From TrEMBL:
Domain of life: Bacteria
Organism: Streptomyces yaizuensis
GO molecular function: helicase activity
Annotated spans, Disordered: 11-56, 234-253
UniProt KW keywords: ATP-binding, Helicase, Hydrolase, Nucleotide-binding
Protein known as: SWF or SNF family helicase
Length: 472
């Protein structure tokens, strides 16, 4: 193993599985005892426990690659009180010194090795959700057609976290939810338990259902409860509910009438095909321009509306329509300035560009830079470019901690603060900026102006590689 990590020392994996009542050989006391992990990386075990093999060292600059892994890291780093232990734990986890991880309701466990090879059993306890909380979670999932369809298909949509929080159920840990226990003798968070907490982000990259397990529900049980609740909800809708209320008049047409009329009804017409491209814009030519109206600008706006209408139609006809929430319009909620930059990103021609620049108060070069930001990340990237809605103190504290732990040794670049949420690489035309939501944006200097280098990243090292052109 890298960096001199060798045998387990005082504690090996056999010790772990011989613990008996201490936590590794027992099965879930519930009714599920079959292996449920399928193809998602956990070794055979009951629905109440899964074991994941040790992972190799992390290569590259990133640590977690999916939304779930990054969300766990954000929650972990945002609620921890000892950033130094987190930094040391992140280095241990990156080196591959965390052994096989056992995940059970309320607890994750692994052997974590020091540099001299000494192994310590580390446990991180996460408060299990109460039965009333699970009831609210199940009701929330069944109430949403998108959630129930995704979960029954073994998918975990990211917006599940936000909707669960609205129902009063916090899936990600908050302050005080994580309780560390370690054989090294530390009474609070130590590098070994911090490394284990970081390792869970990599497990969530593989299978987000691990989060629900550690919160108290295994996959088989949760899916069964969702199916039963969904079926009961459907039956209640037809029968007037299970509470004995007055039955509601069934909607629709009785099935026997449909079958009886099947032979006499004409077939449904074929769906109208979606045009391959928006239709041509009518020629708005006049001997004299109407008062205050530029025909070229009006024609461009008509073409933009047609293109947006076609995209909305394609989205409505997509099999995924209704499963994932989204704005009714691609421009819903944009400010005047944001929408002007969006229009400029469509390359409308010099005359319209000049009108857009004048309308936004930007010079031509400034509008071109804003267009590059829009193409890199829409309204969020534009806000970072303009410094609108700068990051608050909490985000800046997290950003400082992320800069400390993103590189090791000689890899660490020399950074100089260049304003709130901005850091410039000394001697290089590269800059990092953090947005109000904690995401990192790469910038580079071009013709004396800082311009976006590409899309945002979840950690500063990946963003800086983009700014320096090292992403290949």
């Amino acid at each position: 193993m890298n960096d001199g990590y060798g045998a387990y020392g005082r504690y090996d994996e056999q010790d772990m599985h011989d613990e008996g009542d201490d936590g590794f050989s027992g099965h879930d006391e519930g009714e599920d005892t079959a292996d449920t992990n399928g193809t998602n990386g956990g070794s055979g075990g009951p629905d109440g426990e899964r074991t994941f093999a040790a992972m190799p060292p992390v290569s590259g600059r990133g640590f977690a690659g999916t939304w779930w892994g990054q969300a766990w890291l954000s929650a972990l780093e945002g609620t921890a009180l000892d950033s130094e232990q987190l930094t040391r734990g992140r280095r241990i986890a990156r080196s591959g010194a965390v052994g096989a991880v056992s995940v059970r309701p309320g607890r994750i466990t692994a052997v974590v090795r020091d540099r001299d090879g000494t192994g310590h059993r580390a446990d991180v306890l996460l408060t299990e959700l109460t039965e009333p909380a699970w009831e609210r979670f199940l009701d929330m999932a069944v109430d949403s057609a998108g959630h129930i369809a995704a979960l029954l298909d073994r998918e975990m949509p990211p917006h599940l976290v936000e909707d669960a929080a609205t129902a009063g159920v916090d899936l990600l840990p908050g302050i005080g939810d994580l309780e560390p226990e370690c054989g090294c003798g530390a009474w609070d968070l130590c590098p070994h338990t911090a490394a284990l907490a970081y390792q869970l982000a990599r497990l969530l990259d593989r299978d987000p259902w691990v989060l629900l397990l550690v919160r108290g529900r295994g996959e088989r049980r949760l899916l069964r409860e969702l199916q039963e609740r969904s079926a009961a909800r459907a039956a209640g809708a037809v029968e007037g509910g299970a509470g004995g209320g007055v039955p509601q008049e069934p909607r629709g047409v009785p099935a026997d009438r449909v079958y009886a009329a099947a032979g006499s009804l004409p077939p449904l017409p074929a769906p109208v095909p979606v045009p391959g491209a928006p239709g041509p814009v009518p020629v708005l030519d006049a001997e004299a321009d109407p008062a205050g109206i530029d025909p070229r600008a009006l024609g461009f706006l008509a073409g933009d509306a047609a293109a947006r209408a076609r995209r909305m139609l394609l989205a409505a006809l997509s099999p995924e329509h209704g499963r994932r929430p989204g704005p009714a319009s691609p421009v819903g909620g944009l400010t005047y300035d944001q929408d002007a930059v969006r229009l400029a990103a469509a390359a409308p021609g010099p005359a319209v560009l000049a009108r857009l620049a004048a309308g936004t108060g930007r010079q031509r070069a400034g509008l071109e830079t804003a267009v590059r930001a829009w193409r890199a990340g829409g309204a969020d990237a534009l806000a970072v470019l303009d410094g609108v809605g700068p990051p608050g103190p909490v985000v800046l504290d997290r950003a400082a901690a992320a800069l400390e732990s993103a590189w090791e040794g000689t890899e660490r670049p020399r950074l100089r603060a260049a304003g709130a949420g901005r850091w410039t690489v000394v001697g290089r035309d590269a800059q990092l900026r953090v947005g109000a939501d904690g995401r990192w944006w790469p910038f580079h200097r071009e013709a004396g102006r800082w311009v976006p280098s590409g899309p945002c990243a979840g950690d500063p090292a990946a963003a800086l590689a983009e700014a320096l052109g090292e992403t290949g």
